[in-house]
Amino acid sequence: MSLQLDFPAVLERWPSFLAGAVLTLELAAFSTVCGAVLGTLAAVGRGAHSALIAAACKIYVEAIRNTPLLVQIFLVYFGLASLGLKFSAFTVAVAALTINVGAYTAEIMRAGFEAIPRGQIEAAEGLALSRLQIYWHIILLPAIEKVYPALTSQFVLLMLASSVCSQISAEELTAVANYIQSDTYRAFETYIIVAVLYIILSLVMRAGFWGLGLVLFPRRRRLGTPL
Amino acid sequence: MGGHLNINHLIFLGQGALWTIGLSVIALIGGGIVGFVIALARISPLKSVRIASAVYVQLIQGTPLLVILFLGYFGLAAIGLQVSPLAAAGASLTLYVAAYLGEIWRGCIQSVPKPQWEAAEGLALSRTQRMMKVILPQAIRIATPPTVGFMVQIVKNTSLASVVGFVELMRSGQIVNNSLFEPFAIYAIIAVTYFAMCYPLSLFSQRLERRMGRGRSNLAPA
Question: How many angstroms separate the CA atoms of A43 and A32, rounded?
Answer without folding.
Answer: 16
